[in-house]
């Protein structure tokens, strides 16, 4: 395996980290209308991800920076061709982040809070949907000219296969997030989250299985099918574990589901990075999209030094804020709720 191929899989790993970690963030945000019966419930939900949501989002920044440095041609084609979809994702993430920080600024204004609650819901659902749409289009290929420029339209990206991919990530993240709520809360909200994950998990299994089978039949190879089977078994195991009340096992298996599913998509893509649906000669591959060997070598040494430090820091953060959140923690505080990023 040369350095270009190595960095293809490093980029895959970074997107796995982003989808697993920010995925349950999105799920928690989308669960507000379903689990938040009152303002205290909503504050409990927000505080489950309060200490970590902004840290989780840094994974997409690192993934994008790595893509830019390791595969500049891929980055240029992707961000120019999908600019509208990616702009919508960016705006949704901004609205979501602002809502976490501003929702508590007027503790007695319920209309103010409801507005930001819906911004959290929409800001979580839109990226969860569009990331799946984007990756599904990358796997199936898009029309490119000889200069590797996208020559389609935004609405061509909203094809049946891509929309099914978007619905799959939406449901996966939602169920993953609801299981996280049951893992991080106590009392009635914990039970409601577990029951909701049971119901949403059934729909998630059906939709995800449909997408994986479609992908495998159209683009898959042996490695894709191996990873897809692992993802399917992990998803079913996650549902069964949640049904039996084993939230920790369910959440772990849900993370494995998302991780192996993302690796399966990259396996279906390999060795291309952006297939051209109109003419295979216009496709971007690992070889013609990567940076120079010297650049990749410098990046490899940098990743070897700093990536373990980042992982260690994130692991320490999750360990520090591992305790469950309950209504009593909220009801016993001052009327103004704490800023989510503070971890209270």
What does this molecule look like?
- With 344 residues, the protein is mostly helical.
- It is built from 14 helices and two strands.
- The protein has helices at residues 3-30, 32-35, 39-49, 53-70, 72-81, 83-102, 110-140, 160-184, 188-219, 222-243, 247-269, 286-289, 293-320, 327-331; strands spanning 272-274, 284-285.
- The chain has a two-stranded antiparallel ribbon with strand order 1-2.
- Helix 4 runs antiparallel to helix 13, helix 9 (188-219) runs antiparallel to helix 10 and helix 9 (188-219) runs parallel beside helix 11 (247-269).
- It is globular and about 60 Å long.
- Mean pLDDT is 90; it is low at 334-344.
In short:
With 344 residues, the chain is mostly helical. It contains 14 helices and two strands. The longest helix has 32 residues, at 188-219.
Features:
mainly alpha, Cytochrome d ubiquinol oxidase subunit II, disordered C terminus, 14 helices, two-stranded antiparallel sheet, globular, 344 residues
Strand order within the widest beta sheet: 1-2
User: Into how many domains do the coordinates divide?
Assistant: 1
- Cα(first) to Cα(last) distance is 46 Å
State the low-pLDDT regions, or none: 334-344
In DSSP terms (H or I, runs of 4 or more residues), the helix count works out at: 14
Order of helices and strands: HHHHHHHHHHHEEHHH
Helical content band: over 70%
Structural class determined from secondary elements = mainly alpha
Overall body shape: globular
Number of strands: 2
The average pLDDT value, as a whole number, equals 90
Strand residues, percent: under 5%
Radius of gyration: 20 Å
């Amino acid at each position: 395996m040369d350095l270009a191929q190595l960095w293809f899989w490093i980029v895959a790993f970074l997107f796995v980290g982003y989808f697993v970690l920010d995925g349950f963030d999105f799920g928690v945000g989308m669960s507000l209308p379903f689990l938040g019966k009152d303002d205290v419930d909503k504050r409990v939900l927000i505080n489950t991800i309060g200490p970590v949501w902004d840290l989780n989002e840094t994974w997409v920044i690192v993934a994008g920076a790595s893509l830019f440095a390791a595969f500049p041609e891929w980055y240029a084609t992707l961000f120019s061709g999908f600019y509208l979809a990616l702009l919508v994702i960016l705006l949704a993430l901004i609205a979501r982040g602002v809502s976490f920080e501003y929702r508590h600024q007027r503790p007695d204004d319920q209309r103010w809070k409801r507005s930001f609650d819906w911004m959290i819901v929409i800001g979580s659902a839109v990226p969860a949907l569009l990331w799946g749409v984007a990756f599904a289009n990358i796997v199936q290929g898009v029309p490119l000219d000889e200069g590797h420029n996208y020559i389609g339209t935004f609405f061509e990206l909203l094809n049946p296969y891509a929309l099914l991919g978007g619905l799959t990530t939406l449901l996966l993240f939602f169920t993953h997030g609801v299981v996280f709520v049951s893992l991080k809360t106590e009392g009635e909200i914990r039970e409601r989250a577990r029951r909701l994950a049971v119901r949403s998990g059934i729909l998630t299994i059906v939709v995800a299985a449909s997408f994986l089978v479609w992908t495998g039949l159209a683009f898959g190879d042996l490695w894709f099918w191996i990873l897809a089977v692992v993802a399917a078994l992990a998803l079913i195991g996650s549902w069964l574990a949640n049904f039996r009340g084993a939230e920790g096992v369910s959440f772990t298996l849900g993370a494995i589901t998302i991780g192996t599913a993302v690796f399966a998509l990259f396996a279906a893509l390999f060795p291309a990075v952006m297939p051209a649906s109109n003419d295979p000669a216009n496709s971007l591959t690992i070889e013609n999209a990567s940076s120079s060997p010297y650049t990749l070598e410098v990046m490899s040494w940098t990743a070897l030094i700093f990536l373990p430090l980042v992982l260690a820091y994130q692991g320490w953060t999750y360990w520090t804020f591992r305790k469950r959140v309950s209504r009593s923690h909220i009801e016993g505080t001052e009327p103004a709720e704490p800023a989510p990023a503070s971890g209270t």
